[in-house]
Amino acid sequence: MTDAPRPPFEHPANALVLEIFRANGALIRLGDALVKPLGLTSARWQVLGAVAQGHGGLPVARIADNMGLTRQSVQRIVDELAEAELVGFAPNPAHKRAKLVVMTPRGQRLFQRASERWAPYADAIAAALDPRRLRSTTDNLATLRGFLDQTNDRSSE
């Protein structure tokens, strides 16, 4: 008599990961729809957000690290944003070649417009969830990300 294998998403960690993937997909679809009228994609909006969060003082590699993406993919998007005159580059006192990505006034205005379009959704999410559960979910996801980052660091040694 053999035990039947357990369905893969019965495991709580697998169910969580699947739900994160689904939520990510839903966020990207919503983001694309929100910023398309502004001539942006979710990816470009996310990078603009990372530049805004870094107060315009981060090189591409740091933006990529903060976003959990590869440097090459962020570099491609930054180059597109620079071509559209939404970001520019400033000297980096800590590194001669790795310029700092800075938002242009045009980029700041566009990011502000995108943020205004997103605000009602952020408010609706916050209103739909108990504030303690929302904070707890955020903390749990940050802990999960930290665990995964450590695991990735160890596996690449």
TrEMBL record:
GO biological process entries: response to stress
Pfam families registered for this protein in UniProt: MarR_2
What are this entry's molecular-function GO terms?
DNA binding; DNA-binding transcription factor activity
- Which key words are in the record? DNA-binding
Domain HTH marR-type: where? 13-153
Gene3D superfamilies for the chain: Winged helix-like DNA-binding domain superfamily/Winged helix DNA-binding domain (1.10.10.10)
Superkingdom: Bacteria
The record ties this protein, via InterPro entries, to:
HTH_MarR-typ, MarR/SlyA-like, WH-like_DNA-bd_sf, WH_DNA-bd_sf
PANTHER family linked: HTH-TYPE TRANSCRIPTIONAL REPRESSOR YETL, TRANSCRIPTIONAL REGULATOR, MARR FAMILY
Q: What is this protein called?
A: DNA-binding MarR family transcriptional regulator
Source organism of this protein record: Rhodopseudomonas rhenobacensis
